[in-house]
Design goal:
The chain has 107 residues and is mostly beta strands. It has one domain: predicted glycosyltransferase like domains (Thrombin, subunit H), CATH 2.40.10. It has 2 helices and 7 strands; from the N terminus they run αββββαβββ. Strand 5 and strand 6 form a beta hairpin.
Amino acid sequence: MDLFERRKYTRTLKNFKIKIRVARTSKEVDGVTENLSQGGAFVMSPSWFVLQEDEQAEMHLFLPPEFTGQKHILTLTGPAVIRRIDEHKKGVAVEFLKELKTFKPSL
C-alpha cells in the first residue's frame, strides 16, 4: 500500500517558508516545507538539529500572494508538535495540533 494512500490528508509538494517557535525556549527556526497538508508538514531547515521529538511548537506558515490570491503574504499561525527528526534530509516532520485551515491568519 502506498504511504500517501494511508494519510488522512492530501499533501501538496509546494515549498513555503515557515518559522517554528519552540515552546520550551522561544527559539525560532526558519525552514521551508518539502510537503504540506492540513495535518502537518515536513520542514527542511539548516537549524533542524536544535529541535527535539515530541517538542511543542508554534508554526508560522507564510503563503505567497500567488497561492492565496491576496495582495500580501498571508501568515498562518497555529500549534504543532515535532514528531520526527530526519538527519539525512536535514529536517523535521511536524504534526499540527489542529487542522491548518483553522490556523489564525494575519497579513
